[in-house]
Amino acid sequence: MSSANNKNKLSKKYAPHIVAASSMLASITTMSLSHPFEVLKIGQQLTFGNTTFNPRHKIKYYFKGLSSLNLAIVGKTFIRFRAYDYFCNLYENPQTGEISKFDMFKVGAFLGFIESVWVIPFENLKSRLVGNGLTTSEKLQGRTNIGPLPSKLNRNPVYDIYSNRFSIYYRNEYRVKPSMTFPQAVKEIWQVDGVKGYFRGSLATMYKNMASAFIYFSFYSSMKNAFNKENDRSKSILIGVASCSLVVIFTQPVDLIKTRLQSNRYGPRYYTGNLDCFRHTITEEGVSAFFKGWFPRLLKVGIINSGVGLGLYQYYEKILTLDDSVFQ
């Protein structure tokens, strides 16, 4: 009887819907706390050459695009946990119950790909809102703090070749009065760019998410098995921070490419694609340009989203399982 009761308690504590809900709430909370660092990162990545991003903006502009990311989290959390369980069960060794490192790599890659397909439109909406917010703030202050644009910004005629007179009209209208809310951004992208506007930077986003998932899950699992078999909370947080730090180091260059391709400040007006963005960034700004925005991204991903996020996840899990210890 005792073992049956323990089993019921465990199944309740680790029920999939509790885990998913805890993760979603923790992700939304940490995303809201860390979003100003995301805006700082984007602002730095949109500077050209040796220009330094000036961060003096009203606080409201540091939360532009947050609604898009939080909406993405809801679907992303559902996909992640359903797909993670499915792939883990698929590759789990029936004798040992363990998953090999190579199979863990495949699980991470599959998760990254599936999440990317869902996230890409929301990432484009976020980038549009952040860019519009910074541009509006600049105009109100009578300055340009993202820095001078490339001298040949309009070198890519493809953008206008595939834009009909209506989209050109709307593009000019939105340059005068940019969209500042999520519904407005959805409408702006549809009227100016059409469906393709929601999928700018798709390849870069997929690569970044797949690489991030692989690095995070494989490193975290390896470190946990080696140093934290007892599942100590402090060690879990440290391993999570270290895992996210590796993600930032190895994916920062492709994150810059993604940001610039999705930005209507550069986008298709200056870059024809991922390789073109890579080539021009190296020749015009040097290799160091690929690491613009690394520090705010590290603070966001490595410290807040990982360290604080894990603590919040455990807190929300206790609340959702009605664990009285959370109130003590």
From TrEMBL:
GO terms for cellular component: mitochondrial membrane. InterPro entries: MCP_dom_sf, MCP_transmembrane, TXTP-like. GO terms for biological process: mitochondrial citrate transmembrane transport. Solcar repeats lie at residues 99-226, 231-319. One of its GO terms (molecular function) is citrate secondary active transmembrane transporter activity. PROSITE patterns: SOLCAR. SUPFAM superfamilies: Mitochondrial carrier. Its main location: mitochondrion. It holds the Pfam family Mito_carr. Gene3D superfamilies: Mitochondrial carrier domain. Belongs to the mitochondrial carrier (TC 2.A.29) family. This is Uncharacterized protein. It comes from Saccharomycodes ludwigii.
